[in-house]
Design brief:
The chain is about 30% helix and about 30% strand. Strands 1, 2, 3, 4, 5 and 6 form a 6-stranded mixed β-sheet that branches. Strand 2 and strand 3 form a beta hairpin. It is α/β, with parallel strands linked by helices and about 180 residues long.
Length: about 180
């Protein structure tokens, strides 16, 4: 005896179900490929250059009396980054702080809990060239856009942060190699 053929409605329903599953699978595949491609791009030389430019752009408003320079950036995004040729300059272009390299190793597993663990912060050949102004303050304050003329006011009971970071930051190790 021959098996009954599925009705047209059942074949249509089965086809639509397969198409839906295939569509969802295709969208998920595109998302995975897009995210993976984005991560690979950001780890590339062009991506690192893009991140360097964005970081300098974001830092500029916090340095109204100075300029941050970074010659190069290398990152893998997930475990750390290295900056080459970092300097903070005053308005005349004189470097106040300079590092041949700054390396940062971090652990992002605490990020969902708003916690960043910096396993190592390494400053390679830092040079510090600060001047004490007649007011007794450092010229670094001007680069940060803080007043240098007026004497400091008494600290409030709970000082406002210079930059409000909504996370706990745990710095475990700081290395300074070749301070000049």
């Amino acid at each position: 005896m021959a098996e009954p053929r599925p009705s047209r409605v059942r074949r249509l329903a089965r086809g639509l179900a397969l198409l839906s599953v295939g569509g969802v699978g295709g969208v998920l595949a595109l998302v995975v490929v897009g995210v993976g491609g984005g991560v690979l791009y950001l780890r590339s030389e062009a991506g690192n250059e893009r991140l360097r430019g964005l970081a300098l752009e974001q830092a500029a408003p916090f340095l109204p009396g100075g300029r941050l320079r970074v010659e190069g950036l290398e990152t893998d995004l997930f475990t750390g980054l290295a900056l080459r040729g970092v300097s903070l300059e005053d308005t005349t272009g004189r470097p106040l702080l300079r590092f041949d390299a700054l390396r940062l190793r971090y652990d992002l597993r605490g990020a969902p809990d708003k916690r960043l663990v910096i396993e190592e912060l390494a400053l390679i050949h830092p040079t510090i060239d600060l001047t004490v102004l007649p007011t007794g303050q450092l010229d670094l304050l001007a680069a940060l856009g803080l007043p240098v003329e007026s004497p400091p006011e008494p600290a409030p009971a709970s000082p406002a942060p210079y930059i409000d970071i909504p996370a706990d930051i745990d710095v475990q190790n700081v290395n300074i190699d070749g301070l000049r």
